[in-house]
Amino acid sequence: MPVTRAEASQQVRDAIIGATVRIVAREGVAAVTHRRVATEADVALSSTTWHYATKADILEAALVWTAEHEVAGIAAIAERLGTFDVHAWADELADWLLEQVGAEREVTVALYRLQAELLGTEGALAVHREWARGLRALGDHVLGEASAIDVRLVIAALDGLRISALASGDVDVEDLRRAVRRQLEALLG
């Protein structure tokens, strides 16, 4: 079946976002230009400017994608586990963190670089509000009416472990597993 115009347009947008994430992860935000993204995405330069008028638009779209990607990963854990069991969640979240600093490292690095670059902009604030709503909804789904502060503390603790592992380049798998378990037990156990 032939691809519709809307599907083709979405494929181009997806290629642009994927290229932006890769460039940001490898070289930083400063390396992102319409021309560079077009080359990396293997699309026409006019496609990048058609879909994203400014560099800020491209960066914001990449931030949206990375945030949605993160929420989807945690939502998949919630779907698999159903009800809350601190030990099962600790194991799953430790696996998720290991994936974030391993196979998903590129996306994770891009996420942090995009957050730092767009910090305080109206678009980034909207993305962060939506991201927080998504994570809070998952917390409520898993924990029942979870305390907003408990959800924020769990997210902050996981985020701290993740950025520490990325920054140091040293990931002790068992140490990370123990840290996630201890944090969850202390906060929610």
Explain what you see.
With 189 residues, the protein is mainly α. The protein has a single domain (56-188), classed as Orthogonal Bundle (Tetracycline Repressor, domain 2). The chain is 81% helix and 0% strand. The protein contains nine helices and no strands. The longest helix is centred in the middle third of the chain and has 27 residues, at 55-81. It is elongated and about 55 Å long. The termini are far apart. The relative contact order is 0.11.
Main features:
189 residues; Tetracycline Repressor, domain 2; mainly alpha
What is the element layout, followed by pairings?
Layout: H1 5-27, H2 34-41, H3 45-51, H4 55-81, H5 86-101, H6 105-118, H7 122-143, H8 148-168, H9 173-188
CATH homologous superfamily descriptor: Tetracycline Repressor, domain 2
Give the SSE string.
Answer: HHHHHHHHH
Here the CATH topology equals Tetracycline Repressor, domain 2
- Overall shape: elongated
Mean pLDDT, to the nearest integer, reads 90
How many distinct helices? 9
CATH class type:
Mainly Alpha
> Which second-level CATH architecture applies?
Orthogonal Bundle
Taking the sheet with the most strands, its summary is:
none
Query: What level of helicity do the residues show?
Result: over 70%
Low-confidence stretches: none
- Quick one: how many beta strands? 0
Which structural category fits the helices and strands?
Answer: mainly alpha
Radius of gyration: 18 Å
| Number of structurally distinct domains | 1
In terms of DSSP E residues, the strand content is: under 5%
Distance from first to last alpha carbon:
52 Å
